[in-house]
Amino acid sequence: MNKRDINLEDILTDKVVEEDLLEVPLGDRVFKSFFVLVLFLILVVIGQLVNLGVFNNSFYTSRSLANISYAEVEPAPRGVIVDRFGIPLIRNEQTLNTFLVPHELPKNLDDRLSVFRRINEILGIDQRELDQRIKEKDWGSSEKLFLTGDLDHNQIAILESDNVPGLRVEQSFKRVHELSLTFSHLLGFTGLVSVHDLKQSPGLFIDDEIGKAGLEAYYDASLRGVNGREIFLRDAVGKIKEKRVSALSQVGGKLETFIDREFQEYFYNRLMQALSELDRNIGVGIAINPQNGEVLALFSIPGFDANNVAGFLESNNQPFFNRAVSGLYAPGSTIKPLVATAALVEGVVNPGTEIFSAGFIEIPNPYSPDSPPSLFLDWRPHGWVDLHSALARSSNVYFYEVGGGFKNQQGLGITKLKDWWQKFNLGGKTEIDLPGEVPGFLPDPYWKNEQGETWRLGDTYNVSIGQGDLLVTPITLLNYISAIATGGEFYQLRIMKSVIDREGEEIIRSKPTVLKDISQGIGGYVKEVQQGMRDAVVRPYGTANLLSGLPVSVAAKTGTSQVNNNEKVNAFFVGYAPYDPLAGEPQIAILVLVEDAREGSLNVVPVARDVFSWYYENRIKLR
Fold first, then answer.
1. How far, in Å, CA of 591 to CA of 474, rounded?
2. C-alpha–C-alpha distance, residues 330 and 122, integer Å
3. Coil, strand, or helix at residue 587?
4. Looking at the predicted structure, is the pLDDT value of residue 12 above 50?
């Protein structure tokens, strides 16, 4: 067919076919896929809007404000912290802080380097350190970089006269610790907000100062004031167009504590003296009121100077580690009052049951009878001892047999021992209002099997005298002794007495809280244990007999735990006063710990004697 053979009808017919092909309908799957895609995109957009507008609203608002404005801060003083008599433990002092503001630096490179050299001359921050701090800074949260605070008079004079471009000086407050080492772990310290802090608390600003440790951290929300802020809005070229006052400064709340400043100062200095004489440098001192859980004194040695935290970052012996609430120790013989209580309640012994201590017991090897027997030593031969004299003398053999059994003497066994550890809260916490408290560790056969080992009788013997794998914190150890003193009541330990707002109104009040009460379970049995602890003081053979001449009656228990494969010993003292019911309920219980003591408990009893004496003469006697 040639061109001349094509007619109009053929053309129209072909067109109809093409048009029919173009109008073929799309399948349902295409529309459904398109609908799902659109719906997904809508949900993504909505989710992002919710994220930006709700969850991260404060964060991104602050970032956007930083781009179009800068803020001058009128810092608010943090609330003061005082002891039980209203004596300040920490105070505020006005100071000046310096900041680097990059957009105010000269544009010319040589001029900018000249500014950096001037910063080094005035503030002692070299170019390398400054570059590193600029690199690590999150500039999305703030337009300025904190350089240093607490300027001296010479630096202030130079900065006021030089007017260095890019360097801004702002008024602030600093915390002043008069007895910094004495109260370092108790009070803690403050520091500038980190990016992590901002994410946790969006209401903070990057240049705010918050508590980082101790009471400063635990009660930061109450102590932290509200900074005053003036916002300066800028146009696109950085010229200030408007000034707004966004907030007036408000001082933080006052924290009243149960701490006795004068008493803690004496206790700390006395233990420091003992450590110095022993050429040792690690110890703990704690004092509480057994009747209500009030903490009278608490410190850990070594401490740190909260006025110069950076100067202790490279120190030995972990000065920032609060051993009082975070250190785990084998309690040594201080566990024996607990074992004695359990043995009486469970009917393993009665107060008059006598056990002979020749200075050791021998246990045949059950797997190899021909092998030499295992020897479990007492610290000296004691002869026949009953419950009272076993506690007073601190006989190991008595508690080996009471804890694990021997020949005809029934023992508690590890299952009941662990039950009683838990009754006395050794695996729990005192819930003291300080950060970092950890629970104790209570071993048992199941745990040992997980280590691929078998629990043996010797393991039960060891934990019965506070050795082996049993670990407790000093604060938990003292709280259990306080429960012995009260007849079975455990109180939540409390440092905070009340919080007073800026108007002088009490907004928080601490009240005694009973964590546990096992008094009905231990009934009159615990009185026998108390008598044994009293005998440790008044009997000539008692391990705490040095306290017998005190004008106040004391019940006590000493302890020595061997650590590092018996290469060193930790010495403990725990006790309470007054013991005599005619003198009233116990008003104070104390713990003294010396790590790596030279002569075991002999190194801590003199400290305890002087601490009890001071407290009686200056507190109990005057009531």
1. 7
2. 52
3. coil
4. no
Of 406, 86, 569, the C-alpha closest to 398 is 406
Rounded Cα distance, 201 and 189, in Å: 19
> Can you tell me the distance from the alpha carbon of 63 to that of 141, in angstroms, rounded to the nearest whole number?
5
Q: Is 79 left (phi over 0), alpha (psi -120 to 50) or beta?
A: beta
Question: What span, in angstroms and rounded, lies between the C-alpha atoms of 219 and 251?
Answer: 14
Task: Kindly list the domain boundaries of the chain, sorted by start residue.
Answer: 3-54, 69-257, 261-620
User: Which superfamily does CATH assign the domain made up of 261-620 to?
Assistant: DD-peptidase/beta-lactamase superfamily (3.40.710.10)
The model's pLDDT over 115-151, given as tens digits with 9 standing for 90+, comes to 888 888 888 888 788 888 777 776 666 677 888 877 7
CA distances in angstroms from 62 to 71, 161, 238, 453, listed in the order given? 11, 33, 17, 57
Mapped onto helix, strand or coil, the DSSP state of residue 156 is helix
Query: What is the model's pTM?
Result: 0.83
DSSP 580: -
Structure tokens at 321: 């580690």
Q: Are strands 81-82 and 69-74 parallel, antiparallel or unpaired?
A: unpaired
What is the CATH class of 69-257?
alpha beta
Distance CA 428, CA 193 (A): 32
Instruction: Using alpha carbons only, give the angle 146, 308, 199 rounded to the nearest 5 degrees.
Output: 45
Contact present, 288 and 259 (Cβ < 8 Å): no
Q: Are 168 and 192 in contact (CB under 8 A)?
A: no
